[in-house]
Amino acid sequence: MKKLLAIVFIAFLIACSSSRKVVEDKSVEGGKKQIVEIVKPKKITISSEDIKLSMEYLASDELEGRATGGQGIEKAAVFIENYLKKNDIKPYFKTYRDTFKLGEITGYNIVGMIEGNDPELKNEFVILGGHYDHIGKGKIVEGDSIANGANDDASGTVAAMEIGRYFAKTKTNKRSILITLYSAEEMGLKGSSHLAKRLNEAEMNAYTMINFEMIGVPRAADKSMAYMSGYNRSNFAPILNKYAGEEVVGFFPRAKEMNLFFRSDNFPFYKELKMPAHAISTFDFTNFDYYHHVDDEADKMDYKHMASFINKLIPGLEGMMNAPTKEVLLNDE
């Protein structure tokens, strides 16, 4: 009876923990069964609650609209640095900050790295980013003058941060990843231009780049979940969708009409590093009325949509990052 109870107890332990396994230990006389710890990567899911927590701080009045050079964006920079440090995302440079000057204004890009797990492929870099600055003040509406920039672009900033956390925890990326958050986007892509030039001068082996630009609101049900600027400039979208198992990123005809490829932080990386570099967005100018407006607030974001989008995107990124050869290539246009 005692032997039977022991067997039941062992079975219970196995059922309750994927990290436990019964093995035969040959070093023990008689090959007795032993319960040993088998370390397996934990499944990480991006939650709407975690996204909301970061969004509510980055788009709060305390940060004063995150204008480059102001006290508010300095608080945002510290918040992002602490997030990266907490989640084991190391600084790429000596510190997290990539510093640049715009006249009397000092700006900071925040740059973290997740090293790839393949001895050869880790020398190739996938760059993920978004701009964490905004315009600061806007036209006053009902006494409110702070343009909090929740959708533009706290949403993209948090997407890059959360994807970084996923790979830092799971360590499932063969290629290395840079998590890059830019300031001075609203001043003419100045932060991303500085960083792209610096990486080019350092002869970084950069594979491809994705810039997350305004992903806080969902598109209409009959549209693809997101769209990519410069869709036909590379085969990025079909490769990404292949690994995602569905069309996460589609074609948006107005993107070319509006020159969106040239208007966001992907463009400096395309220009400097001569590689596929695109912006991904779920804002299509029909589904959110508060672009550069004081009502671009955290409480107007759809956090379930954001979590769903990021979780669907991750397998696509993971497949692309781990392919044995560079599948994403520039097209002739």
Description:
With 333 residues, this protein is α/β, with parallel strands linked by helices. It folds into two domains: 36 residues, no CATH class; 275 residues, 3-Layer(aba) Sandwich (Aminopeptidase), CATH 3.40.630. 35% of the residues lie in helices and 21% in strands. Strands 3, 4, 5, 6, 9, 10, 11, 12 and 13 form a nine-stranded mixed β-sheet that branches. A hairpin with a 2-residue loop joins strand 4 and strand 5. Helix 2 packs across helix 4 and helix 5 packs parallel to helix 8. 47% of the residues are buried. The N terminus is likely disordered.
Which SSEs are present, and which pair or pack?
Blueprint: H1 2-16, E1 20-24, E2 33-37, H2 48-58, H3 71-86, E3 90-91, E4 97-102, E5 105-114, E6 125-131, E7 136-141, E8 144-147, H4 150-170, E9 176-182, H5 190-201, E10 206-212, E11 226-228, H6 236-244, E12 249-250, H7 253-257, H8 266-273, E13 277-281, H9 303-322
Parallel strand pairs: 6-9, 6-10, 10-13, 11-12
Antiparallel strand pairs: 1-2, 3-5, 4-5, 5-9, 7-8, 11-13
Helix pairs in contact: 2-4, 2-9, 5-8, 6-9
